[in-house]
Every structure is written in C-alpha cells, then in structure tokens.
Amino acid sequence: MGLRELKCANILIPKIRIRTSIKKLSCSNCKSKNIIKRGFRRTQNRGRIQRYSCKGCSYRFVRDDGFYRMRNSPQKITLCLDLFFMGISTRKIQEHLQAFYPKNASGVSIYNLVIKYSKIISEFTDNLKLKGRQEVQIDEI
Question: Are residues 87 and 115 in the same domain?
Fold first, then answer.
C-alpha cells in the first residue's frame, strides 16, 4: 500500500492507493473468480479506471473502490469530509470548493457525502483493534 499526499489550499490530504490482485476480485454478476483485465474506462473526474471481464459470463465491470459512480473526484470528497469534521460549515466548504475546483457541489450534496461516508468510516473503525498501553501519563496544568 503506497501513501502519497496531495496539497490543496494548505491542507494535506493523504491518498491511499489500494493494490488489488485479480485473484482477490470476483465477478459481480456470477461471483466467478475467473476474470481478466479488459482495458480501461475513462471518466472526467477520476481518469482511467481498470475494466475487468468475466470469462464465465462475459460480464464487464470495474472494481468498486468506495467512489464508484460518484460524480466528484476522491480528492474532493475527502477534502469535504476533512473540512466538515474540522468544524467548518457546509456553506463555507462550498465557498472553498468554488475557489479551488471548477465544478462546485451544493451544500446539500456536501452534507449527503458526509452522511454516506461517515457510515462507511464508522463501520471500518468499529472493526479496528487498537493497541493501547497500560500506562497513563498526566501532565500538569
């Protein structure tokens, strides 16, 4: 797993690239593991996306990476989430997006993004096992 950072208006956004092998993927139509790479799909916001084909049913599909069928780029979505959880209102986030991205998202769509990805993030963090210490450190105030 590689980690890169994107700079956007003095905010660092970590971008995690998930490397999946074809062996882990399965056909979304017939659940077969017998799939092959079959070119790329080009989108306006996300660029080139690898397309796969099932040898059993000839169904063509793309891997769902959490941003499937989203009209905004993953960077823009993570920026909205980051700003919202820093305590910035959806209207201020909308003004920020107007300044740095050519196509703007409305305040309602920003809020819908926050609702959708908050559920996904909470399900992910509920399954994490954190390693904690037995020791407590207290600083003088």
Answer: yes
